[in-house]
Amino acid sequence: MALIPRVILIKLGVGGLVNTAVSVFFILAFFIVRILPLPMLAYLLVRGIPGLTHLTPFERGISWTTGPLPLLLNLYWFNLAIQGLVKFLAKPMKDKQ
Q1: What is the mean pLDDT of each run of 10 residues along the chain (97 residues)?
Q2: Residue 80 near residue 34, CB atoms below 8 Å
Q3: Which candidate, 72, 59, 57, 63, places its Cα nearest to that of 45?
Q4: H or E element that contains 16
Q5: Can you tell me the distance from the alpha carbon of 59 to that of 53, in angstroms, rounded to the nearest whole number?
Q6: Half-sphere exposure of 57 toward its Cβ, with a 13 Å CA cutoff?
Q7: What does the buried/exposed string (b/e) look like for 45-62 if buried means 16 or more CB atoms within 10 Å of the residue's CB?
């Protein structure tokens, strides 16, 4: 994904249009891969995944308590990424280089 080129550009101190394009691509890719599927994953968590009716009540309880954690973490990371991008885009162009 776009995270590795983004980290390399930051460590090399490369700024400007290239860094902006990579950052925007990272946000779009993160949204498509991790945020867009969240409603379906939440639906499956609530309704149950077909074929997993053999779970014991304890296992079902564990899945209900730990299942939302990845969903919430993805939303938190997306929020952090958006905040970082907004800060980056709010800087004057001379500071980005």
Answers
A1: 70 78 87 92 79 78 85 93 85 62
A2: no
A3: 63
A4: helix 16-30
A5: 11
A6: 0
A7: eeeeeeeeeeeeeeeeee
Q: Report how far residue 45's alpha carbon sits from residue 65's, in angstroms, rounded to the nearest whole number.
A: 10
Distance from chain centroid for Cα 69? 13
The pTM of the full predicted model, rounded to 2 decimals, is 0.71
Q: Where are the alpha helices (DSSP H) in 31-67?
A: 38-47, 57-66
Rounded Cα–Cα distance for residues 71 and 3 (Å):
20
How distant is the alpha carbon of residue 38 from its chain centre? 10
Instruction: Say how many residues make up the chain.
Output: 97
Structure tokens at 69: 């954690």
DSSP readout, 62-74? HHHHHTHHHHHHH
